[in-house]
Amino acid sequence: MMDPSNNHHAVTLTVNGQTRTESLPPNLLLSEYLRDHLRLTGTHVGCDTSQCGACTVLVDGAAVKSCTVLVVQLPGTTIETVEGLGRPDQLHPVQEAFREAHALQCGFCTPGVLMTAVALLNGDPHPTDAEIRRGLDGIICRCTGYENIVAAVTRAGNGMAAAQEVG
Amino acid sequence: MPSEQLAPTRPGSPMGQSIPRREDARLLTGHGHYTADVNRPGQLYAVMVRSPHAHAHIRSIRTDAARAVAGVAAIYTGTDVAGRIAPIPTAWIPPGSDLAITDHPALADTTVRYVGDGVAMVVAESLDSAREARALIDVDYEPLGAVTSVADAMREGAPRVHEGVSQNVALHWRAGSDPSAVDHAMKTAEVVVRQAIVQQRLVPNPMEPRAAVAEFDAAAEALTLWVTSQNPHIHRLLVAGVLGLAEHRVRVIAQDVGGGFGSKIACYPDEVLVAFAARDLGRPVKWVEERREHFVATTHGRDHVDEVELAGRRDGTFTALRVRTRANLGAYLSTAGPGVPTILFGLITNGPYDIPLAATEVYGLYTHTTPVDAYRGAGRPEATFLIERLVDLFAREIGMDPVAVRSKNLVTEDRFPYTNAFGITYDSGRYHASLDRALEHLDLGAFRSEQAAAARHGRLLGLGVSTYVEMCGLGPSEVAGAVGFQGGLWEHALVRVLPTGKVMVMTGISPHGQGEETTFAQVVADRLGCALDDIEVMHGDTQLVSMGWGTYGSRSTAVGGGALSVALDRVVDKARKIAAHVLEADVEDLAFREGRFAVHGVPDRSVAFTDVALKAHLAWSLPEGVEPGLEAEASYNPSNFTYPFGTHMAVVEVDPDTGDINVQRYLAVDDCGPRINPLIVEGQVRGGIVQGIGQALWEGGAYDAQGQLLTGSLMDYALPKARWLPPIETDFTETPAPHNPLGVKGVGETGTIAATPTIVNAVMDALAPMGIHHLDMPLTPERVWRAIQDARTTAPAATGGMRS
Ligand code: FES
Ligand code: FES
């Protein structure tokens, strides 16, 4: 267990709707906290130079590469990971659009791409193709060639906007 | 032109339907099971110490400070493991190549041979401790001279990579027509075009780094190894062999794998070391590659220097081809390394063209660089690139449109099965139909007018074409043996129908993004008439699947699907016997349709397949000689490779002031036989094309003279990004493979194979008015800009003018 005398910091933050207070070492990355402490292994780590974006999560609604921030920098924040988005039997509209448009192959980049897409669509549900491609600048997908991801984001935006109008 | 649709055996069949993938729900919700997600109770963490020198003697390794770090469980050096871990073997020994097989120790003991070569492994209670200890290991190196390029490797006095391997020649291999006949044809030809071509080194970079977790049960002497593998059974064989373990007590699991592109075929020292440490320490050990490690320690691809000559007549007919290649194999022979630049390259350098005389000669060379092995396409992209470039140069030389030259030389439909000058037999093809289809989408005449009009305003537009054929669906096992692959290439499937009629499928292929959990379920649902939800396709665990050779060489659906198809036939045959017994009818009188066996002409005398499944398991009343249960397995050994083909076209604009290339249009017409799931096929095509464009325009692994990898991170090595790419238009013709049960040909690599020459040909077409006819890849703005500057200084009159 953590030893508070060992230079650890107390941090309170909310992850996927659950508020936790933890005593954590100051050099612990958010990606490490999610994967190793909470065993939320849906957030992936694909690089060591903050290029790939596989680790992207939402921090207070903004897309953030979790390998670039320390947990102790995030007191009071709300973190959302791919596990909080939807369930296998109840996909989030963005996840559903990715499935329908075949926007994933190996699936390794996918959690980060999904969170990037959610942040993008929360800002603007109807981005143009060029805006989507620019919005995906922080992620690398080696499998899909991106085109189906662009189509999925468009489809998800339309779906989310329609859902909002109905609701 | 009509295209054959994959014939579903019943209405409403999922065959040929664009069904969203069944693997997606878990991958989209963060519930995939990748190797790095595996955690075992009490596990230790391993990190590797890697050589910073391309070539050096190890004078000594001091580990005492590192051992003093709290939490360090063990440190192993090359001396510690020598004799306890056998050298890592290559699995491909091309016959007649005089392959100079050298030892590849799991950890270097006396000499390091590339930057990234393993020197030591640290195992500790936490990753932090392991890393801290790694930083304190003091290796005393005596740096030696290094050789990194094939241009230098054979030079007199070049540093030697391995003792006793003269001129660093790992292999020398020839194939094709009688060299003197080719020589004569070259000397007497009306036209000969020659080009030296560099096909640069690529770093595969699947987004999931490699990883391994090993657990050893000492009482049972059994090892479980979770590893990022494209072929768990090959890993089982090699890891057991290298560690001296009994193969039946080794279990290899590769459940979800985050892309491979060839780089996860090989058996690497790392996973062997992790397994070794787990046994030695009696605790599970986990290792996850860092991206910077990936760049130096995971196999690279391509890296050729080719000299190509294409001879022919002024009317456009090709008469002879000669290819002389120097291929970089890196510091050690990787698992499939020697086979890639020989068998997978040299037997198909004529591409889809009927060239009566053709010869390939290859030197495979050792250098002080990361080992080179398969990367998406593996050999066939290199073959396609050089012939496609030469065709364009030939067309320019005789003043004919490249499309017309292609049309003149493509193998015609009536020639199939077609045997090329290297003795391989293309199964089926309609190459002209493919070219025609592409030209329906892109009006060549209109483009040439637009290009000429743009040229009048100083704008450089270009059209690139590539007509390609690929040899894949690897492959007949007899051929594997004949070409020196140290394994079989057949495939295995087991179909188990449970009492409730639910179906489990175990397949020896190991998909990692290709979607066979879905396509195979479609095949089963079509054949057995059950719902997709009643089928589970399982793979990637040697304990679950009896045997298999894995996923690479676009073989999964062609060969694995073949095994599945035969196993399904056997299940239906058995079920038919039981149904006949139940219905008191003759077996021959039963039709099987939409999940029911019915007596011909008496539709109400029928029984559902699910009822037959139950009766098979109850076994209360089975026909004479029929065993209880309902399952069948099949091992399918294909009789030939498959030969997908197609036509790709691209339109680019080159900015003459900056050298920047804008890909305006990309069009792909592919033929992989019938498409079980068009959505997945299109996904494979698009993803493959982008990797091919990556090689043409951005990607390139570069070493300096000392053997330092200059492109050793994602900041220096440019992987394609979304905003650099155009939409990709796709279309398909469907020509079945005549020799496999599903008629499918494979589509995982075609995009990568076709796209690289398509893009480069387009850029060269754009630059032709400036007198630039060939540039080596990647075509970065700087390289193109420099070429334009050079052309302007040497031939100012040619710039900005119209094409001749
Ligand atoms: S892991 Fe690559 S950006 Fe975070
Ligand atoms: S789906 Fe494999 S990296 Fe994006």
Structure, explained:
Chain A folds into two domains: 2-83, Roll (Ubiquitin-like (UB roll)), CATH 3.10.20; 93-166, DNA polymerase, domain 1 (Orthogonal Bundle), CATH 1.10.150.120. Chain A is 34% helix and 15% strand. Chain A has helices spanning 30-37, 93-100, 110-123, 129-135, 147-166; strands at 9-15, 18-24, 56-59, 62-65, 78-80. In chain A, helix 2 (93-100) packs across helix 5. Chain A is globular. The termini of chain A are far apart. Chain B is built from 21 helices and 28 strands. In chain B, helix 7 links the parallel strand 10 and strand 11. In chain B, helix 11 runs parallel beside helix 20 (750-767), helix 17 packs across helix 18 and helix 19 (678-697) crosses helix 20 (750-767). With 804 residues, chain B is an alpha+beta fold. Chains A and B meet through helix 2, helix 3, helix 4 and helix 5 of A and helix 1 and helix 19 of B. The complex binds FE2/S2 (inorganic) cluster (FES) (2 copies). The site of one FE2/S2 (inorganic) cluster has 11 residues of chain A, from loops.
